[in-house]
Amino acid sequence: MDQRIGFIGLGNMGNAILQGILASNIVSGTQMYVYDPHPDKGQMLNQNYAINNLDSAREVARESDIVFVAVKPNVIVDVLSDIQKELKKNTIVISIAAGVTIKTIAKCVGYEQKIVRVMPNTPALVNAAMCSITPNTEVTNEELSVVQQLLNCIGETEVVSEDLIDAVIGASGSSPAFVFMFIEALADGAVKGGLSRKQAYKFAAQAVLGSAKLLLETGKHPGELKDMVCSPAGTTIEGVQILEAKGFRSAVIDAVEATIKKSQIMAKD
Ligand SMILES: NC(=O)C1=CN([C@@H]2O[C@H](COP(=O)(O)OP(=O)(O)OC[C@H]3O[C@@H](n4cnc5c(N)ncnc54)[C@H](O)[C@@H]3O)[C@@H](O)[C@H]2O)C=CC1
Ligand SMILES: O=C(O)[C@@H]1CCC=N1
């Protein structure tokens, strides 16, 4: 790939996406242009990969063919307005901000600019992200597949329409937090039963990883896979009954729904 790739913001997500792309070798460090006001972030990457660590977001925008804007939702409007004059006609602007619509982005960078909204998640840090991709009408199919190729470096991708991004945030953007709470709770229970804390995290996390892999690789219904674990008069069905009695599934659905609602509210601001 010969495009020059920019990153504005090198926090959790910007850093994870950039490192995943670099590790895949589809672009070299010299094709990367980055800026973060926190000086250590770019410098560290520069030492390891010889990327171009620039002094401002504007400079990154000027140099890039594709620019990831990976800053918090409350600063993205200012950043986009600041870089607008530096963008070329064909520069693709990628935003990963939750609750910031293509319309809001276009208001800052211009309605004819190529814009892609992406919703990743933190498993990007270990190349196991799930990213949704939503292009505006200015982006060609060829450009979309370039963006998809870049994001496939950090995990899986699906193209979705913009009205579904709030649901994606519930299902995969925010849900790692819920999954970590579940793992922590599984481990707490196991510690109560005598396992060491360290072993409890390993057993619990591997059970979650393996269950997700089993679902994805067999394509079986989660209910069928649950039934495979529940022996008649066995141990598992006892726990299943407690989770049902305590409203486990309903609590998870409510949590996802609350996440979706918040994302919708943010998009209206
Ligand atoms: N953390 C998560 O699980 C996910 C986050 N997102 C989205 O990703 C975006 C970034 O989130 P995180 O990486 O978690 O945040 P973060 O706080 O780790 O990173 C933000 C980075 O932006 C930098 N920054 C601040 N002002 C800047 C400016 N004017 N120009 C350039 N850089 C600037 C900060 O120094 C920081 O390194 C947010 O919009 C969030 O909605 C999306 C999906 C998942
Ligand atoms: O909580 C947040 O705002 C971000 C968006 C998706 C995950 N974390």
Automatic annotation (TrEMBL):
Sites binding NADP(+) sit at 8-13, 70-73
Which pathway does the protein contribute to?
A: Amino-acid biosynthesis; L-proline biosynthesis; L-proline from L-glutamate 5-semialdehyde: step 1/1
Give me any GO biological process, just one: L-proline biosynthetic process
Gene Ontology cellular-component terms for this entry are:
cytoplasm
Q: What is its main location?
A: cytoplasm
Domain Pyrroline-5-carboxylate reductase dimerisation positions: 162-264
As its record notes, the protein acts as a catalyst of: L-proline + NAD(+) = (S)-1-pyrroline-5-carboxylate + NADH + 2 H(+); L-proline + NADP(+) = (S)-1-pyrroline-5-carboxylate + NADPH + 2 H(+)
Q: Which UniProt keywords apply?
A: Amino-acid biosynthesis, Cytoplasm, NADP, Oxidoreductase, Proline biosynthesis
**Enzyme Commission identifier(s):** 1.5.1.2
Membership in a protein family: Belongs to the pyrroline-5-carboxylate reductase family.
Which HAMAP family does the UniProt entry name for this protein? P5C_reductase
- The molecule here is called Pyrroline-5-carboxylate reductase
